[in-house]
Design a protein that fits this description.
Blueprint: E1 2-4, E2 7-8, E3 17-20, E4 23-34, H1 38-67, H2 74-82, H3 93-115, E5 133-135, E6 141-144, E7 148-151, E8 160-163, E9 165-167, E10 180-188, E11 193-203, H4 214-217, E12 224-233, E13 239-244, E14 250-256, H5 258-278, H6 286-329, E15 337-345, H7 354-357, H8 362-369, H9 373-384, E16 388-391, E17 413-415, E18 424-426, H10 427-440, E19 454-460, H11 467-481, H12 533-539
Parallel strand pairs: 1-9, 12-15, 14-19, 15-16
Antiparallel strand pairs: 2-4, 3-4, 4-11, 5-10, 6-7, 7-8, 10-11, 12-13, 13-14, 17-18
Helix pairs in contact: 1-3, 2-3, 5-6, 6-9
Amino acid sequence: MYVSTPFWCTEVGRVGHRAVGGTRTRVLTAVVSVWLGRADHARAHAACHASALLWNRTVAWVRGEWRAGRSPGREDIRRFVTSLPADVRPVHAHTAQAVAYDLADAIDLARANKAQGIKGVRFPWREKRYRPLVFTSRFGWKVKDSERLVLSLGRSRERLVLPTPQFTDRQGRLVTPDHWGEMKLCWDVAARCWALHISYRSTDDSLPDASANRSEGGYSLSEARLVTIAVDEGIINPMTLATVAPDGGYEVLVINGRRGRAAKQARNKAVAQLQAKMSRCRPGSRRHRRLGEANRKVRARAKRRLRDFNHQVTAKANRFVREQLAAHEDTVSGGERVVVRMVAGDVRGIEKNTEKRRRASRSTRQQLSQWERGVQERQLAYKTGVPVEHISEANSSQTCPFCLGRRKVRGRAYVCVNKDCARVLHRDAVGGVNIHTLAVNDGAFASVAPDTDVRVKYLRAQPGWSPGQRERHGFHQRVRACAGEGRRREARSSARNRAARSDDTSATGVAAAPARSRVIVDSGTAAPSGTGRASARASGKVVEGRNPEFFAGEVHTPKLSP
C-alpha cells in the first residue's frame, strides 16, 4: 500500500456540482499509477482489446441502423450491447454498458457541434484497437481487507487484483474507497505502465463565478463586485495574468516557461537522433527494437516533465487569482459579494495548418504545433472552478495601454513611441493589461489613467538552481570524480540527498564543501559569494564527509522534476 499525490486533470462529463447535506461538492478525478502482476497484466491487455472490438461492433451496428432509416437512441444502443453473447463481450456488464453510453455521448456531441456550424465534424467512424476499462460506481470493483483492489472482468472470468491505491485530496486528506466513484484502468503507451483514473466527490473549493447560476447564491451582478482576471498566453511566457487591485493599480504576474521549452527542445532533438538511427536499421532487428524502446523512454520522460510544468504554471496562476479575490474581499462592505471572471486572449486554432500557411519559420511552426495552451487553460479552469472566456487579442501586445499608441515589438520590453508617454513595460504585461481593458470595455481599447501603477511580478514555473548552488555542486562532482576508481559522478537531483549523510562517508574519500561555505537558499534567491572550490582553497583545508553539526538547518533546493 502506498500514498500518492495524484495529478489532477479535467475529464469531460466528470466534473459536476451538487449540494450534499447543505455543503456544495464537486466530482474530481485522481490519476494514480498502479502495478499489475504478469498474469493480470496480460488479462488486462486482452480485456482492453476486447473493449475496443466491442466499440467497433457497436459503431458498425449504429451506422447500419442509420442506413436503414432508423435513429437508435441511448437506451437502444445499451440494449444492443448488453444483448450480445458473452464470448463477444468478454468484459464486465457495466464495462460494456459504459461503451454504449460513451458512444451515445460522442454522437450527441457531434450533433451539437454540427448545430453550431462547426466545420469538419464527423460522427464516430474510426475503428479502435485499444480502449480503457471502465468500472462504474459500486459495480465491477471492490476492496478486500483494505489491501487489495479487485477489478471484475465478468462472471466466470479471472479477476484483476492489485494493491489498493491510496491518495489524498487537494486539502491533503486521505480519500477512502467509500468515497470513490467510477474508475478507469488505462495503459500509458509512452511510459509503459498502468494508471487508475479514480473519480471521487470532494468539497467544492471553486471560486464564486460571475457566469454561474446566481439564483443559487441569491445575488445579482449589481449587488456583487466583479473582479476580472485577464490571461495573456504565450510560448515564451505561458501565462501572464493581470487584474486591478483594490487600490486601483494593476497587479501583473508573468510566469516564465523556460523549463517547458527546454523539455520540448530536448525531446525533439533526442527523438530526431533516434529516428535517424532507426531509419538505417532493418525493421524488427534487435537494434531497431532497442532504439524504439529508447524513443518511448524519451517521450515518457518529456511527458512527465511537461505534466509537472503545466501543473506548476497553473498552480501559480490559481494562487494569484485566489490572492486577488481575498484582497478584494477584505475591502468590501458587509453583505457585498465578490465574483471572479477570467478572460483569455483568443488564440484558438493558431496551431492548426501551420505548414500550409507558411506564416513563420520552421522552428516557430514547431513551437506553435507543440504549444500546450489548451491543457493549461483546462487545468486553470479546473483548479479555480471558473470557466475561461475568450476575447480577441488583436494588437494587444502592440498597443500602449496609456496613450493607445501602436508599434511593432522586438524583444521582451515594450517602449512606447509616443515621446509624451515613453512608457517602458514588460511586453507580456502590456498584453495582459490590454486584454483586461478589452474585457471590461466590451472588446474596445480604453486608455489607462496616467497615474495608474503597474506592478509586475516575474516568477519561474519551477524552482531553479542559484549560481552558488551550481558552483558548490560542481565542486562536489569534481572531487568525487577524483576520489578513486569506481567513483562515478552523481546526478544533479542527488545533491539534495547529500544532507542526510553522516560522517561515515569520510572513509570513502569523498570531499564536500567546507563548513563556512554553508548557504541558506530559498527558491529563486541567489546564494552569497564565497561558496565552492574558491572558498575551500582559501580555507586551506577540505572537510571530509558531511558534519551534521555544521550543516544543521541547511535548506536545499527542492528536487528537480524527473
